Amino acid sequence: MNIVIAAVGGQGAVLASKILGTLAQNLGKDVKVSEVHGMSQRGGSVVAYVKFGEKVYSPVVEKGTADIVLAFELLEGARYVDYLKENGKLVVNTQKIDPMPVITGDVKYPSDLNEKFEKLNIGYVPVDALSIAKNAGTLKAVNVALIGVLAKNSNIKKEEWIKAIKDTVPEKFLELNLKAFEMGYDLN
């Protein structure tokens, strides 16, 4: 299983990759989680790779080989959609966060990303994860809300996902994150 996590700094890509890595370990799989690349500061583009299976030799996911791209923002989904293999799945938060070139007025945020994704030969799962996170009680749970959607679209038992979250998320944030996971899971 090859997963690309594409996010904007501050959205929780590191925690999401740790949850996925813990899930794979709990399932007895060989797992490699890459370093997060990009500007991990708020606003910068961030990407992490999670690979797991019987034997994994490299932590890097090459273009055209990802089973899933988990995008925490629309433009990040567009940046990494070419990592998907044919019939791969793009799970993307419909939230728009303007990158610096848009903020400065040098370029406009693309208005037709949803239409472009729908025309591709992929599974496209748009999610308003920001609303789910707000309803769960914290804007910081967008990442775990998306993991809930991912879990529902996987063949891995829900209990395994919940165990991975419990094993990874600090106790003081666990209840809110479990609520966001459940809301994302129940969305589909």
TrEMBL record:
Enzyme class comes to: oxidoreductase
Report whether Oxidoreductase shows up as a keyword of the record: yes
EC numbers listed for it are 1.2.7.8
Question: Does rRNA processing show up as a keyword for this record?
Answer: no
Q: Any idea which UniProt keywords this protein has? A: Oxidoreductase
Pyruvate/ketoisovalerate oxidoreductase catalytic domain location is 9-186
Q: Which InterPro entries match?
A: IorB_Oxidoreductase, Pyrv/ketoisovalerate_OxRed_cat, Pyrv_flavodox_OxRed_cen
**UniProt GO molecular function:** indolepyruvate ferredoxin oxidoreductase activity
NCBIfam families listed in its UniProt record: PRK06853.1-5
The protein's name: Indolepyruvate ferredoxin oxidoreductase beta subunit
